[in-house]
């Protein structure tokens, strides 16, 4: 993994966490809203340990009631 990908992961994760907390959702609640059985997957995305797929980014944006552009606007 290069520095650009790592930076992207961290920025995306921080943005998801910020928006999730603004909606007063827990990680398990967000996970359930997008159909994830493992809520810890949200934690791994927020911590920048994994890269979310395009579809997962879309699902998260929809669950947080923001556009994908808003989610990726960092």
From TrEMBL:
GO terms under cellular component? cytosol
Q: Which SMART domains match?
A: HTH_XRE
Whether DNA-binding counts among this entry's keywords is yes
Q: Name one Pfam family in it.
A: HTH_3
Enumerate the InterPro entries for this protein.
Cro/C1-type_HTH (IPR001387), Lambda_DNA-bd_dom_sf (IPR010982), TransReg_Diox_bact_type (IPR050807)
CDD domains per UniProt: HTH_XRE (cd00093)
> Which keywords, in A-to-Z order, does the entry hold?
DNA-binding
Taking every annotated instance into account, which residue ranges of this chain make up the domain HTH cro/C1-type? 16-71
The keyword DNA-binding appears for this protein: yes
Give one GO term, molecular function aspect: DNA-binding transcription factor activity
PROSITE patterns the UniProt entry points to: HTH_CROC1
Gene3D superfamilies for the chain: lambda repressor-like DNA-binding domains
Q: Which intervals of the chain form a coiled coil? A: none
Name of the molecule in the record: XRE family transcriptional regulator
Q: Which organism is it from?
A: Sphingobacterium hungaricum
């Amino acid at each position: 993994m290069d520095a650009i990908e790592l930076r992207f992961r961290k920025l995306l994760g921080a943005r998801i966490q910020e928006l999730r907390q603004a909606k007063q959702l827990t990680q398990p609640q967000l996970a359930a809203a997008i159909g994830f059985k493992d809520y810890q997957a949200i934690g791994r995305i927020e911590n920048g340990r994994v890269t979310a797929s395009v579809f997962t980014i879309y699902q998260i944006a929809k669950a947080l009631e923001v556009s994908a552009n808003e989610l990726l606007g960092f």
